[in-house]
Amino acid sequence: MLPDQDWCNVYPTAAPFKPSAVPLPVRMGYPVKRGVPPEKTGNLELVKIPNFLHLMPVAIRNHCAALKEFCTQWPSALSSDELSEKHFPIEFQTVDYVSAGPSLRNPKARVVSMQVKLSSLNLDDHSRKKFIKLAGSRYNAANDTLTLRSDRILQRVETNTNQLQRINGRLSLAQATIERLKGNKKAIKTAENHFYVPDLEQVPEIDVPYSLPDLLGVADDLMYSADLGPGIAPNAPGVPIPDLYKYIQKTEAWESEKEESDMEEFTWEGSRSEKSALETLLRGRFSSTPQEQILQNPTVQQYRSAELAQPRRAGGEY
């Protein structure tokens, strides 16, 4: 090998150990009778172990230089994490793996997680409570974050390394990266905006909530299985699931039938405690005072705060 040989042309992509291409006196194996370990030629032990000869510093520098064409400077207005979360509340998380073995595919690389704070969704009190109820364990009340995970993203079926190899095995890592980015701009945009669940078509930015099939007003085509989770009934393949974000903003007829004992938390407005206090004050010296002014009275506000501070069990009871 020449001293000025371009190493990226020798190992353009991940490949097993090639003794004729590696100019190093590598030895590995079990020495026989305290002898010298086998040399690199015909050594199966060197072929079996993973190598990163395609990720040498020169290849990484070329890779980074090729990616600069698709990079822009970080916006100066986003000087803190708080500003980034304010303007870009939705966060996608993916992990790429470098594997060694018969296949470069890794099932963990298909997993895509989406996180968003409920405070950034502009929900009223009714929609927020309904959203939390449907999300179940996906909602973390400690940091007000909703986390959705899916391993069926269309553009994450294969690892990035395997996609680069399928473009052209003879291309260098930097050239293959450029070809992949140029050819998949539209596909990448689709992958960023949609989750994909089998038999549910494309669901915009939402996963399938497990409690959704049990609610009224949902399509009868939905089915639920304790083993497989929610899905589409066999007699109606390909029916899209309702958009959860729009669904929670609707008030169904059955929701008006909820009583105070059915509430998840105690609410002073419209409760029996508020009505009892108004009736008591209207029979006394506040008989000619409008109800709005009575509710703004400091004594009534103090009583309201004391009622809200009382620990209650589910259903609003003491």
From TrEMBL:
Annotated ranges, domain Small ribosomal subunit protein mS35 mitochondrial conserved: 89-166
Region Disordered: start-end pairs: 284-318
GO CC aspect terms: mitochondrial small ribosomal subunit
Bias kind Polar residues: ranges: 286-304
Transmembrane segments: none
A GO term, aspect molecular function: structural constituent of ribosome
Keywords from the UniProt entry: Ribonucleoprotein, Ribosomal protein
Keyword hit for Transmembrane helix: no
Location of the WASH1 WAHD domain: 189-260
InterPro entries linked: Ribosomal_mS35_mit, Ribosomal_mS35_mt, WASH1_WAHD
BP terms from Gene Ontology: mitochondrial translation
Protein name: 28S ribosomal protein S35, mitochondrial isoform X1
Organism: Xenopus laevis (African clawed frog)
Lineage: Eukaryota, Metazoa, Chordata, Craniata, Vertebrata
